[in-house]
Write a structure and sequence with these properties.
- The protein is mainly α.
- The chain folds into two domains: 30 residues, no CATH class; 137 residues, Four Helix Bundle (Hemerythrin (Met), subunit A).
- The chain contains eight helices and no strands.
- Helix 1 crosses helix 2, helix 5 crosses helix 7 and helix 6 crosses helix 7.
- The radius of gyration is 20 Å and the shape is elongated.
């Protein structure tokens, strides 16, 4: 069977959302993580983009050339952020796969994990001396475990009560 035919068969046997998720996971597998130097450069570029956006919003320059430079910095910052998200997608999948079987599909859990990754990227400080992946793993786990706790119960309980129930069950 040709590769194209195999992809078509796979897409028809899964739900459309699941098929899209499988294709995106296949693309993530091809994306290599960034080096520490590249990661730092992307984080700094993203921070410069945030500064430029803030300046454009609060005190827009009247000079068209200066405005164009700031808009370019904002665009580069957004591209850097997107590249960080894509390059750490494999981390999200690896953490999210541990939480399947709790009432949510891998696609749903991964979406929540990406939200945690985005939060980590926005809060990350490269001067602390740790890699983004180390810092992001906490936020991804927190986001995924919260989603599992909130979305899988028939009767909604506060997250701290669900955590306490889990502790009691372990004992």
């Amino acid at each position: 069977m040709k590769r194209k035919d195999k992809d078509t068969v796979m897409a028809t046997t899964w739900e459309p959302e699941e098929a899209l998720f499988r294709l995106s996971v296949a693309n993530l597998a091809k994306t290599a993580p960034v080096s520490p130097k590249e990661e730092r450069r992307l984080i700094l570029e993203m921070a410069a983009g945030k500064k430029a956006a803030k300046r454009l919003e609060e005190n827009p320059p009247e000079d068209d050339e200066e405005r164009a430079k700031l808009e370019t910095a904002v665009e580069r910052g957004l591209k850097a952020r997107e590249q960080l998200i894509v390059s750490n997608g494999r981390l999200v999948i690896s953490i999210a796969s541990r939480y399947t079987g709790h009432g949510l599909t891998l696609a749903e859990v991964s979406q929540e994990g990406v939200l945690g990754l985005i939060r980590a990227i926005d809060k990350f400080d490269p001067d602390r001396g740790v890699r983004l992946s180390t810092y992001a793993s906490y936020w991804i786990r927190q986001s995924v475990s919260r989603a599992v706790a909130v979305q899988t119960r028939t009767i909604r309980l506060p997250v701290h009560k669900v955590d306490r129930l889990g502790t009691v069950r372990k004992v």
